[in-house]
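Honest question from a wet-lab person: if I give you the sequences of every part of a complex, can you actually get the arrangement of the whole thing, not just the pieces? Trying it with mine:
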Amino acid sequence: MQYWEDFEVGSETIHGEHEITADEIVRFAKEFDPQPFHVDPDIEGPFGGLIASGWHTASLYMGMFVRNVLLDSASMGSPGVEELRWLVPVRPGDVLTGRSRVVDAWPSERDPGRGTIIGEHELVNQRGEIVMRMRARGFIARRPA
Amino acid sequence: MQYWEDFEVGSETIHGEHEITADEIVRFAKEFDPQPFHVDPDIEGPFGGLIASGWHTASLYMGMFVRNVLLDSASMGSPGVEELRWLVPVRPGDVLTGRSRVVDAWPSERDPGRGTIIGEHELVNQRGEIVMRMRARGFIARRPA
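Yes, you can. This is the full assembly:
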């Protein structure tokens, strides 16, 4: 189990790989983001084809990060994200790799049992392009004395 | 069809209502955010029960906003979000209402066919608590001459 003390500023972690399919893109978007360029596999549209909803991309990243890092840590949730950028369209067949870096960390002033981590998170496609970047806060329990 | 010119700074829109269920919370989280407090309906945990993944909450909001606004507008996607805050836990049975306000808008300098809108978006629960707030950018086509 990893506690707040175990997240060293500067440390980087590579998470799983995920190949995204047209079916997945359409299924997510029909429920959560039914814009034509996310639900119509035959579209031309402003992106020259079907692309994944940015919320789908962010959620896929979260799945990788949770399975690779948070499930083995004393995570206490997140108050939010500082900045989230969708930089390059994600298309069917893209193979996405997640990576994260601890960029800042401090103990809570209010709660001695908790600390905050600032992570910079990226998803990279098979051509090495960063398709999504975000900077997010996480609360992690401190190691019990 | 709404174009960039139709989004007036200061205008506010109320979107649909959504009652969230435990089943939905667990189904989303098993795929995208399998932390114990998002997938175990019987958990106590740091939040005193099951709560929705913040990515689920954001995606639900997007569904409302797309169906109520973007599907009738000349949306050209979004480069990202400035700030996203999860302020209050979302629990099974909560009834969420979305609302958005145009806070800034400018025409593209590079592309005469496009403008940017900055929207402030909120999800409010049945007690009037703002559970999520974000400030996001959207690209919208300009009205054809």
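Two things worth pointing out. The radius of gyration of chain B is 17 Å. Chain B has one domain: 4-141.
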